[in-house]
Design goal:
Helices cover 25% and strands 26% of the residues. It has 290 residues and is an alpha+beta fold. Strand 11, helix 7 and strand 12 form a beta-alpha-beta unit. The N and C termini lie close together (9 Å). It binds coenzyme A.
């Protein structure tokens, strides 16, 4: 297979097998760390791929590959992954994510990837609020009752410590992390413990098909963190249920010290989600003939 950089012309006129809504960017769209290529056989595009560090977490290269559906399971994706690994400007590992049984995860595993984070099943019915014990003496208020500035600060503080051991945030992560925060945050159903600084929160984000909830304490070492968080989550679920929302998706990790045990108190369904990394070109298999 031959490779060439993805161009503005490719972006304007993508191959017919790429979904119309595919998000294509030309090679080096941000800088020398953001690489995008096309894989060609006989001059015909059969795959696109790209690597890029997130602006929030810079320690790995996200890897995205799409192979022509008619050419899958023939080693094309493996060849693209190997080429992208070669194009890395440094030896930061590559990473991908998906549901446990997704093609993305099975493909990454075939490249030698190992999980660096896992997320449990996180679909929860709002009626499950009844499973959570009421927390006497814990005062919970709506996100609408605290300032947006305090909500933003609590979000960035919480996000930074919750990722610090497995995907540390980059300098200046606040700006990209907060892009869209004001518009997406549903302050009506968000619930926080605040005195007046927020100590624990169930942040509710508007999303389709279900709202997304992120629940954690502002500090890893919050005394009675589980109790404070239980009060926030219970109040958020009750508020959403009263508004007619039947189901939500939590967005937490198996390493979250307060959220993870709390989720065990709720009936949750869905498929586990996994984030995987692989680093060495040596782990990428040899090229195979088409
Ligand atoms: C995931 C994807 C890129 C794989 O491309 P591909 O050219 O089919 O991959 P390869 O032929 O190199 O597969 C290598 C190995 O990965 C695993 N694998 C790939 N696709 C798989 C699938 N759908 N189910 C199970 N295993 C799969 C297999 O172990 C396979 O080896 P095998 O065919 O000898 O069993 C392709 O299915 C695709 O474009 N999917 C849609 C977009 C996507 O999900 N991209 C993933 C983001 S990185």
């Amino acid at each position: 297979m031959e490779f060439r950089p993805l161009t503005d012309e490719d972006v304007a006129a993508p191959p017919a097998w790429l979904a119309a809504e595919a998000d294509l960017r030309p090679d080096r769209w941000r800088d020398d760390c953001t690489r995008a290529i096309v894989g060609l056989e006989g001059g015909v595009p059969v795959a696109v791929g790209r690597i890029f560090p997130s602006r929030v977490h810079t320690s790995r290269f996200w890897t995205e590959i799409v192979v022509d559906p008619g050419r899958r399971r023939q080693g094309v994706g493996t060849d693209v992954a190997a080429e992208l690994a070669r194009l890395r400007p440094d030896d930061r590992p590559m990473c991908a994510r998906g549901s446990l049984s997704s093609a993305a995860v099975l493909f990454a595993r075939s490249l030698g990837a190992r999980p660096y984070q896992t997320c449990p099943p996180e679909q929860v019915r709002t009626s499950s609020a009844a499973s959570l014990a009421a927390q006497g003496g814990v005062v919970v208020v709506a996100g609408a009752d605290v300032t947006l500035e305090e909500l933003r600060r609590a979000w960035t503080d919480t996000y930074a410590w919750a990722h610090e051991t497995w995907s540390p945030v980059a300098d200046g992560f606040e700006e990209p992390l907060l892009a869209g925060f004001d518009a997406d945050l549903d302050r009506t159903h968000t619930r926080v413990v605040a005195d007046p600084a927020i100590r624990a929160a169930a942040f509710v984000f508007r999303d389709q098909p279900h709202p997304v909830l992120v629940a954690e304490c502002r500090s890893r070492h919050q005394p009675d963190g589980l109790g404070l968080l239980r009060a926030c989550v219970r109040a958020s679920l009750l508020s959403l249920a009263a508004d007619g929302t039947e189901e939500v998706i939590f967005d937490g990790h198996d390493t979250d010290p307060h959220f993870r045990p709390l989720l065990d108190e709720l009936p949750a369904t869905g498929e586990p989600f996994v984030l995987l990394e692989w680093g060495l070109t040596a782990t990428v298999g040899p090229r195979r003939s088409p």
